[in-house]
Amino acid sequence: MKIYVVSGLGADFKVLERLEFPENCELIFIDWLIPEKNEPFYSYVERMAEKVDVSEPFSLLGYSFGGIMVQEINKLKPAQKVVIMGSIKSDKEKSKFIKTGEITKIPRIFPVGMFNDKAANVYSVVRKLFDPKNPKILQYFRVRDPYYLKWSVEKVSEWKFEEIPDVIQILGDKDIVFPIKYSKPDYVIKGGTHLFPATKSKEVSKILKEVFV
């Protein structure tokens, strides 16, 4: 079984490197693409989905913003299983903080320069969003193209989606990006912050081995 994997916003696959899967699974990572200027979201999803081979059975796995992305890809290329970690099934599960961005359109007026990785405020914002107690947060934050980061924040705040019942959701009970109180996850990682795939890899691996049998 091939599993196509999309990591989180601005994150590479280092955050997922400790996870273990059944031996019969072949992982194929889909790297984040840099959005074209004024590219519609559906067009970006189509480009991300190009790597998915539908000639044989496959599953999709997404972390954080990657969870949103694999659900969008699933609409174009339906998978046998869709698993999301540290992510949401629909726009109804957004936190009040993210909904505020959607209503006010504030992410749209952020200057691209705000997302420059040399700016001190990016470090503070990103660290708070992912895991305020983890001093190694920036080792996971590798995709730092300012336009991509601004675009991604906009798309998360604007995302509209009807829940797909079969999507399997794994959430940490200490996640402040996508708080568990707004969702009804299939699996809960006790003490898991938004970085639970890295910090609670044994617990997550056990679940993944049950899901991908």
Automatic annotation (TrEMBL):
Keyword Hydrolase: yes
Keywords, comma-separated and alphabetical: Hydrolase
GO MF: hydrolase activity
Presence of keyword Hydrolase: yes
Protein name (record): Alpha/beta hydrolase
Organism annotation: Chryseobacterium herbae
